[in-house]
TrEMBL record:
Residues 198-448 form the DUF6598 domain. Pfam families: DUF6598. It comes from Sorghum bicolor (Sorghum). InterPro entries: DUF6598. This is DUF6598 domain-containing protein.
Length: 463
């Protein structure tokens, strides 16, 4: 007498054997599907409590028995199967009908109790191996949660994002398809765009490293913001392994390259970090920081500056951020129009944004945003004089100002003689503003392209 568990065990074994076989005579997928469909209709008649079958104009009755009761479990083995064996495997048995072939197969399968005992032992052994293989992953997750809680949170954040958003917004690693200056030249349709709250990223600093690392360190990876407009990454920092940034104990700030458009922050936004320390070989690389930093905000009425720290297994990062209320987007271009930039000079382009102040909030007015620093990034000037900036998009409160600054100094004099100039622009909702910076040996035209911001991913105007 065999139990339902015996039948299920044998079904599992036969399916396993079937997968392992690589027979050249195996039917095509299309043939199997057709035969399976035919078998499905047949088995419905074959394995009922009592089944009447017509064969060669005669009638035979299959009596109730434990075997026929077990055969009713065939539904659990999948469409078009009998105890895990495809109907196509039961056809072609010399002179037998489908029903007779199926019944003979069942009786043969259930005949040998010793074989079934061996089968159960083998399957228990296989299940034990699979369980032991799966255990390390669970143990690794528990160890990650204990030793690097924020990395575990980042992993869970990624898993949840994929489950909820990937069907509509693509891969987790996809970058935003929306660019800056969406409404610089063309007005926003209707009331779909306006000044709104945004996230300003002033700087990201590796504030500390664990004793297992030593300065200097070569860092590569990605830092990105993710807002509600398109739920894709808005890259803030990005370096490939073959183009690392070297950080020292004296200079720990990452050279930011974004955001590529204004980061909307009316409700919530997140910052994602995946930074790696380069080793002598890829196998010796170490995870510096793996984070997902959720940020929530309310309607403060005033722009404000704040810092947040996140400590992972090997480092602590310091984020200097700003919530800019009722802001517009400013995209900044600089072009040499008189003279040329001298290779013997260093230079730094930066901006400041101002707004209404309140004594209860830290003001952003005096916090610098570096657009390009030739000490850490080489100046690239195109044939038409355009200077390639590390970053060029910032948010400006519509009741404040944008101040664009340049300072230059001769490299050999270590900054003893510094030449400076600055321009102040009043924010607009569209169009462009222009001005000229003068550092003596060259003049540069500054162009600021203004745009309102929209929640809606409307077709964009790329620069």
């Amino acid at each position: 007498m065999f139990t339902d568990e015996d039948v299920k065990a044998w079904s599992k074994y036969l399916r396993m054997i079937r997968v392992q076989k690589k027979e050249a005579s195996e039917p095509s997928v299309g043939q199997e599907e057709a035969l399976a469909q035919e078998g499905l209709a047949e088995k419905t008649r074959m394995f009922d409590t009592t089944v009447m079958m017509k064969e060669n104009d005669s009638t035979a009755l299959l009596a109730k028995s434990d075997k026929s009761n077990a055969s009713r479990r065939v539904e659990e083995d999948g469409r078009g199967t009998i105890l895990g064996v495809l109907i196509v495997d039961l056809l072609g048995m010399g002179g037998e009908s489908k029903a007779e072939a199926a019944q003979r197969q069942i009786e043969a399968v259930l005949a040998d109790e010793a074989a079934m005992d061996r089968l159960r032992a083998e399957l228990r052994h296989e299940d034990e191996i699979q369980r032991k293989q799966a255990e390390p992953e669970e143990e690794d997750l528990l160890e990650m949660k204990r030793s690097d809680y924020f990395a575990w949170m980042a992993r869970e954040y990624r898993r949840r994002w994929i489950a909820v958003y990937s069907a509509n917004f693509g891969s987790f690693d996809d970058t935003t398809r929306l660019g800056p200056m969406r409404f610089t030249d063309e007005p926003a349709p209707g009331y779909s765009a306006s000044p709104m709250g945004t996230l300003q990223v002033f700087s990201v600093k590796v504030a500390g490293i664990k004793k297992s690392l030593k300065w200097p360190i070569d860092v590569f990876g990605v830092i990105a913001a993710r807002d509600c407009i398109d739920n894709n990454r808005n890259v803030i920092f990005s370096r490939a392994r073959d183009r690392c940034q070297t950080l020292t104990a004296e200079d720990r700030y990452l050279v930011l390259s974004g955001p590529t458009r204004a980061v909307v922050w009316s409700d919530h936004v997140s910052i994602e970090v995946k930074l790696t320390v380069k080793g002598r070989t890829e196998s010796e690389d170490k995870d510096l920081s793996f984070l997902a930093v959720p940020l929530l905000t309310g309607d403060t009425g005033y722009s404000n500056l704040f810092c947040c720290y996140r400590t992972s297994k090997l480092s602590t990062l310091e984020f200097t951020l700003g919530h800019i209320v009722r802001s517009v987007e400013a995209t900044i271009f600089v072009r040499v129009i008189d003279g040329s930039w001298l290779d013997s000079f260093h230079g730094q382009f930066s901006v400041f944004t101002t707004g209404r102040r309140d004594k209860n909030f830290r003001s952003t007015d005096h916090k610098k945003i570096i657009l390009l620093d030739s000490v850490v990034e080489k100046f690239y000037v195109s044939d038409d004089g355009e200077i390639e900036m590390s970053r060029r998009v910032v948010s400006v409160e519509n009741r404040g100002n944008l101040k664009v600054c340049i300072k230059s100094w001769e490299a050999s004099e270590c900054g003893k003689k510094v030449m400076k100039d600055e321009l102040v622009f009043k924010p607009k909702e569209n169009k462009r503003s222009h001005g000229v910076l003068d550092v003596g040996f060259c003049k540069m035209e500054v162009t600021v392209a203004w745009s309102l911001i929209s929640y809606h991913p409307i077709p964009l105007n790329l620069y």
